[in-house]
Amino acid sequence: MDTVKIGLLGAGTVGSGVIKVMRENAEEITKKTGAALEIKTVMVHNLNRNHPDITGCNVTDRFEDILEDPEISIVIELIGGIHPAKEYMLRAMQAGKHVVTANKDIVAEYGEELFETAQKNNVDFMFEASVGGGIPIILPLKESLTANRITEIMGIVNGTTNYMLSKMTKEGSCYSDVLKEAQEKGYAEADPTSDVEGLDAARKLAILASIAFNTRINFHDVAVEGITNITPEDIVYASQLGYVVKLLAIGRDCGEAGIDVRVHPVFLPKSHPLASVDGVYNAIFIRGNAIGEAMFYGRGAGSLPTASAVVADVINTVNDLRHSAIGRVTCTCYDEKKLCPLDDTVSSYYVRLLVDDEPGVLGTIATTFGNQGVSLLSVIQTRSVGNKAEIVAITHHVRHSAMEDAAKVLSGLHVVSEVRSVIRVENGEEG
Ligand code: HSE
To answer: Which of 160, 227, 306 to mutate to test the pocket of ligand 1 (most atoms within 8 A of CB)?
Structure first.
């Protein structure tokens, strides 16, 4: 096995990073694999565009030039999106080629089909770069932590929203100003929906939770809420109460109650290891019954960090080939665990209300919470807004449905002008 030839689908930011890493580290990679890696053919969308990074490779806009080349044994898919990337990966596997991808959309929605196809055709299917960019997390979960029963996985897995929330926290700026700035800097896309509505994080959580809890979690199984309603006022209250606001992807194995998977903003205690993860950085915090707590931290996106994960997958595949160990790292969803319905999930909540500034109003609010089965940890009247008062309550652990009902009843009270915010508080109270 002297040279392993590779077909690369897509020559964008990550694709050029992959070529760069393979070229710069060629000598070390050969020492590690016993083979030289060669990107033989690159498939691009537009042949007329100048692609300076791919000199020395064949360039094509036909997938068949890679699929039908018997010399190419590994296909790297970096096109993104579902179609035609999914069909390309399936066809490559059916042709006996190993596949490495960074495509979270496909793994989060069609992981089962891809794994089955890989297994049927006796090829490797690797996707380390699909979550957390350069942070090693897929293989650590599948291999290094495999002795554990994982009970909790919590991550900051979207750099755009973490950058925005960090900026709002540091500068007191509002959501729309920070979004505009993030777009100008190229951190947020022109259409930021996938990031700010939590969809990108939900896809990544589906992948992580499937591996952590050994059961197939689809992207559509994840309850999602984005950061669009977070205000500077909430961030200030969070800080005064000892928290930071973060968009977290949370997966918990709640035993009999099922697997709880959700993405939403939370008040996180400043002392939590994830609380100090700022800017575009990502981190994934894991609780396992043997390791205890562990956290993986690093760059969640970008050309070279993501290429680091992609090229590692290629190196592992080459080593599997070398040691006749294809299929060694495979699907780990051997259980079928039920999902915990969102209504049954349990959290503490922060609730901010604008109410009439009159005697007895605080009592009415507390009684209404109580009548809905929501027990309060603390209630504070913080400031006056015109002739109204702003009240902030933190609840004990309550079921999601009870909190929703309470918010509905509260907003119907004549003394309540507005239920301004309802945000979960993580680790505000144990059990
Ligand atoms: N849009 C993602 C983020 C990076 O902001 O973290 C790609 O997954």
So the answer is: 160
Judge if pTM exceeds 0.85.
Answer: yes
Which residue in 102, 87, 84, 111 sits closest to 218, CA to CA?
A: 111
d(CA 150, CA 153): 8
**Helix, strand, or coil (residue 368):** helix
Tell me whether the omega of the peptide bond preceding residue 265 falls within 30 degrees of 0, making it cis: no
Long-range contacts of 172-177 (CB under 8 A, 24+ apart): 172/232, 172/235, 172/236, 173/232, 174/231, 174/232, 175/227, 175/228, 175/230, 175/231
16, two tokens:
């050029």
Share of the chain above pLDDT 70, in %: 99
| Mutate which of 195, 196, 248 for ligand 1 pocket (most atoms within 8 A of beta carbon) | 195
* Assigned token pair, 273: 């290891």
Catalytic-labelled residue, pool 204, 246, 270, 408? 204
Whose CA is closest to 267, among 136, 133, 378, 416? Answer: 378
SS3 325: coil
Q: Is the CB of 301 under 6 A from ligand 1?
A: yes
CA distances from 231 to 140, 326, 347 (A): 36, 50, 21
What is the separation, in whole angstroms, between the first and last Cα of the chain? 55
Question: CA neighbours within 13 Å on the CB side: how many for 158?
Answer: 31
In short, whether 200's Cβ falls inside 6 Å of ligand 1 is: yes
pLDDT in tens, 168-208: 999 999 999 999 999 999 999 999 999 999 999 999 999 99
- DSSP per-residue string spanning 4-30: EEEEEE--SHHHHHHHHHHHHTHHHHH
CA Rg value for the chain: 24
